[in-house]
């Protein structure tokens, strides 16, 4: 687990984390004596939820979804922490417990009315409450209208923020372009500001989610800049560079507001004299593979990259063809053609009985007819195979639950 327990994967896919506050919290209802004590932690303000992160790693994180919230109001009472005048009262119909004992496991949904009190240690309640109430109003709207209102709030907040130039590495750097962009990771989009100078590319997120306040990339270390799609729009830009001094290969996948912004950033990056990209023609890459100097895996990743596929986006995750049909032999003779599947057919047509059922269903359908009901590259199918490596992705996609055990991936033969 990470040292910081809170990640954006604990939120809904695409949900935005705005900021956090140092607080003390106690639960009033349900009334348990041990919960009446004030607990130190941090309160995360997100676009669709509030998350309390207990400083004690043994205790669970508590997520209060705004759609399940009854009221958010300032609390005034004599039963206060001494000297604390910044108290918030939150009533909800249910809440979620996550990462209890710091173990990644299905979330616990507590379906009962509860009241939580928060004492803000430093922030002023009058500065925090209006933002929360605005997001609470958005949570009462239908999904499309809620998302539209959230985006209006996001744009309003972002328009008031510019890049903090005190983070510039070199006094003599010249600013070339400043623009809004989103850092894209699987199931996560984190907005921020991109600043391009004559020697570096900077990304400053609007929140404090990342380990470092500002990501700094030296232009001379960049080896690849690829224009990509994101959510079927030509707004993505993937940057590959070699991190110094360890030489580790790193990637940054950005999505811009529109194609013109993306194209402008791409063009101005290429215009910088410090940028020197590794360019190998496609026919040379094919020749390297044919000569054995490039592995099958690396060549397949290269082909996937040409097809706009990237590990940073589960909707266009790299596709590796499955070619083996012998699952029982202790060893495989790669020169034996009988171990390979029929590559003239898709996976769904390899098993005759299943194919006949699909054809029968197809013949009974109304127009428009289809043979396969889902795409092989959808996030759910990708995580079907990766759930053991990335269980946190599955919990995020499935709203805090793993899939039904009978549908879990157990062995290739099935």
From TrEMBL:
Residues 274-414 form the BEACH domain. SMART domains: Beach (SM01026). InterPro entries: BEACH_dom (IPR000409), BEACH_dom_sf (IPR036372), BEACH_Domain (IPR050865), FAN-like_PH (IPR057496), PH-BEACH_dom (IPR023362), PH-like_dom_sf (IPR011993). It comes from the Eukaryota. Residues 170-270 form the BEACH-type PH domain. Gene3D superfamilies: BEACH domain, Pleckstrin-homology domain (PH domain)/Phosphotyrosine-binding domain (PTB). This is Protein FAN-like isoform X1.
